[in-house]
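User: Before I run my own analysis I want an independent prediction to cross-check against. Here's the chain; please return only the structure tokens and, at the end, one sentence I can use as a sanity check.
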Amino acid sequence: MTRAFVLLCALMFATAAIPQNRSISAPAKKSGYWSCKARADCNDNIKGNCPTDPKKQFAFGGGVAKAQGDARNIAKKAATHALAATPKHVSCKCTGPKGEPYSGGC
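Assistant: Structure tokens:
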């Protein structure tokens, strides 16, 4: 899997419509790869950083890579880019190549 393909996957997740609910669903298992979904939450401690519309105060992104850390970093970058503001927290849910779950920070 090329880096360009991985970035393309991340952008596809990032540009998808933002769901109404803020929960992060576990991504589907991809044989041989870690797949991650991330949610970036706007940092409301910075004046003027967050939009007034609550639906735009968080954004999702995703990533796929051979290593869990790489998949998490791609997902975090995609979610932060989609947010278009400074994030306060970025949380991840990942599924490993054998279906093993991960939930926590990116």
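Sanity check: Strands lie at 34-42, 58-65, 87-95, 101-105.
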